Amino acid sequence: MGMSAGDERAASPRDEEWPEAEKAEKLARGAALKWASGVFYRPEKLEGLGHYRRRETQRNNSIQSRLKSTVQSYLEGVSAGLEQLRSAAQEVQGVCQDLGAARWALLDSADHFQGLQQMRKLMEEHVQLASVVQVLPQIFSVHEVFSHILQLLHGQRLLEAHVELMMVEQLRDDILSQLHLRGLSGAQATVLSYFSGLQDLNESLAKQLWDIVGSSLRLVREDPVLFVTAVRIIEREEKIDDALLLEATFLPPGRPKGWRQKFYQVLQDTITGGRFHAPRLDAEGPGLAKHLAALQKDIVSELLVVKDLMVQCVPAHYNILSVCTATYHQALSSHLQEILREDLDKQGLFLLLEWALRVYHSPEMMAHPDLLPEVDVSALDPLMSSELVDQTERRYVMKVKASVFEWMQRTLEVEFKEWFREEEPETDHEGFFQSALPAIVMQMLNENIQVASLITDSLQHKIYNMALEELEAFLGRLREALVQCGKEHQQDRAVPKYYISHLLAVLNNNLALSNSVSSLHPDTACREVPGSLQAALDRMQKKATQLLLEELLLDLQPLCLQLPSRKWLSGSQLVGSMCEVIDKYAKDFSRVRKPVFTLLLAESELLVANQYLRALLQRKMVCKSREERGQLCHRLLQDASQLRELFCGLGLDRGQQSLEAVFALRELICLKDPALLSLEVLGFITKYPDVSDEHISTLLDIRGDVSKEVRHVVLEMMAQHPQALPEGYRPIFSTILVPVPELPFCLRKGKCA
Question: pTM of the prediction?
Answer without folding.
Answer: 0.71
